[in-house]
Amino acid sequence: MNKSFKTMIKVFFLETFKNKIEVFFTLFFPVLFLVIFGFLFTQNNIVKTYTYGISGTINDDVKNYFKPNKILIYENEEKLKEAVNNNKVDYGIYMNNNEVKYYYVSNMNSNIQWIKYGANSGVKKYLLKLKKDYISVDEKLIKLGKTQTNPMEYLLTGIIAISILSGGMFSVINVFGRYKKLGIIKRFMVAPVKPYQFVISASFNKLILNFASIFFIIILGKMWFNLSFQFNWFLLIIVGLSTTIGMMGVGILILVLFKETESANTASSILFTIMMFFAGIYFPISFIPGYLRWLSYILPVKYVVDIIRYVAGVESMNILVFWFINIIFILSGTLLLIIASKNFVKESK
């Protein structure tokens, strides 16, 4: 590695971290998704309980039929209605022999249907003296990968793919597009710098930033949501390298197709949105209507998500398919970087 090449890498490294927009979209934009969807998924996994007020001719063991909900016992019907009106309980139940009355404040709780269901279930079990629910379900979970995962772990692997897409595609468009617009590439070409040195030195720093983003997301996921991944770290490095190169190639290709940086940014934003919703990042591809599913299989991010979930132990995959996908990303990305960037640099001379 000659001195000028080292100097270029250093210059690009300093420039990368001076560009706050690029750092945001590579490091913090995926974290924003992690926070928003992470806490949403976490809240959905929490079993909600409600407070029921009960009065009437009831036995002391009535509370056992409404578990795990909280039960407050009232002396008479009037005090029960007063508790409901004052929002001390979510739902009031008055039982007098086989007569049952329900009291609740209309439209005060968005979960009223679930509260009603819990009340009906508890009352029926109490009146029939059933110790268990009417239907007993024995769940047996089937592992798709090495470990049993939850929706949050499935989501985080998708967010890593978003990070690679954002860091690879947007950073290349931002740097090369901005350099072309500011005439910086022309200045580089006056110096004894070969086109491949320019591309490699710029791409090297994007690789480093992308790897930082990947590990940053994994660490935050473990800290905030106690996720238990079993990453194959060697394969994760291979995936990070191959997919970042592939996404860089996509970014360069967009820059070549759309001459103006603003047009390239618009096109990449549209493509980014399509990939987010059709690549199986937030939900399985099987959820997508059949007549649109073909779109998922032509999007490169879909395969980024697949191999990341494989190295995380979330999903299984044939090892030959894994290596084939990585080789395709490396070869196609490198080819696009070489061919497209040469044409791009020539236009800037």
Automatic annotation (TrEMBL):
Keyword Transport: yes
Signal peptide: none
ABC transmembrane type-2 domain: residues covered: 121-347
Topology with respect to the bilayer: Multi-pass membrane protein
Pfam families, A to Z: ABC2_membrane_3
UniProt keyword annotation of Transmembrane present: yes
Name of the molecule in the record: Transport permease protein
Protein source organism: Tepiditoga spiralis
